[in-house]
Design a protein that fits this description.
The structure is a single chain. Helix content is 31%, strand content 31%. By secondary structure, it is α+β, with helices and mostly antiparallel strands. The chain is elongated. The protein has four helices and seven strands. It has a domain at 59-122: SH3 type barrels. The strands form two sheets. It has a five-stranded antiparallel sheet. Strands 1-2 form a two-stranded antiparallel ribbon.
Amino acid sequence: MAETRSTLFDDRLPPRGQILGRPSPERARQFMPFAALRGYYDLIRERERVPEKRRDLAQEDIERLSEVLARLTKGQMVRARYYDRDAYVTREGVVTRIDPVAHELTVVTTRIRFEDLLEIEALP
């Protein structure tokens, strides 16, 4: 009699990995985040930017930036403050590329022209 109950119980269970006849990946999809206002948070971040004019660097500041850029290596963590469109922005991340010919520094995926840099610091 014990065997009869276990076979009846096993027949009622859905196949392994499925709940209510729905595969697991389909079930997980219902818990994915939903952005009802697509682009809203990007717009808010843009509004937070305070427009400011580009600053002219003194000769000693330019030399200091050149020294720091000369010592940078690919894979190093940096914090860079640079001019982007209408305001100064700070970007922190790993240096993925240094192009002395094109005068560009790439931090993660952000390209920064050397002439747009205000300050740069190597992080430990």
